[in-house]
Design a protein that fits this description.
Elements (H helix, E strand, L loop, with lengths): L1 E2 L2 E2 L8 H7 L7 H53 L3 H58 L1
Antiparallel strand pairs: 1-2
Helix pairs in contact: 2-3
Length: 144
């Protein structure tokens, strides 16, 4: 290692290309690799676009639900004030509570269905791409 007191790199005379040439490494078809990456990117882009659109739809629907609830609340306030007796006011309050509860359950189910559909669509699209990719890999291996 130290000839005449100087350090000599033990790998300086070693020919790595000669050793690497003895290994039979598979060649990579760059065009196939790029095309696969393009398809994967297109799938991810499509999934993200669909997710954003679905979130817009859900947000719009939630806004509509809140707006309707506020309108119902305002209408209810007017009806309670217009009621002549305490009993009528209490009955209107109970009816409003039941209507509000039913509406909340219906709205929650609708939003849950929208979320579920969004997720199911994404899983279906992703699964299709994975299946396609699996076939592409099988075909590439079969060519060798």
């Amino acid at each position: 290692m130290y000839a005449n007191g100087a350090f000599k790199n033990p790998f300086a005379d070693f020919d790595f290309s000669k050793v690497a040439g003895e290994f039979k490494l598979p060649t990579v078809n760059v065009e196939t690799f790029v095309e696969t990456a393009r398809k994967n990117f297109a799938t991810i882009t499509s999934l993200n676009t669909a997710a954003v659109e679905q979130m817009k739809t859900i947000a719009q629907r939630q806004g509509d639900m809140v707006r309707a609830a506020m309108e119902d609340f305002s209408k209810h306030g007017s009806e309670v004030l217009a009621a002549a007796t305490v009993e009528e006011k209490a009955a209107k309050q109970i009816d409003f509570i039941k209507k509000s509860y039913d509406s909340a359950i219906t709205n929650t189910k609708e939003l849950a269905d929208l979320y579920t559909k969004s997720q199911a669509d994404a899983v279906t699209a992703l699964s299709a791409r994975v299946a396609e990719l699996t076939e592409e890999v099988k075909a590439a291996i079969a060519k060798k």
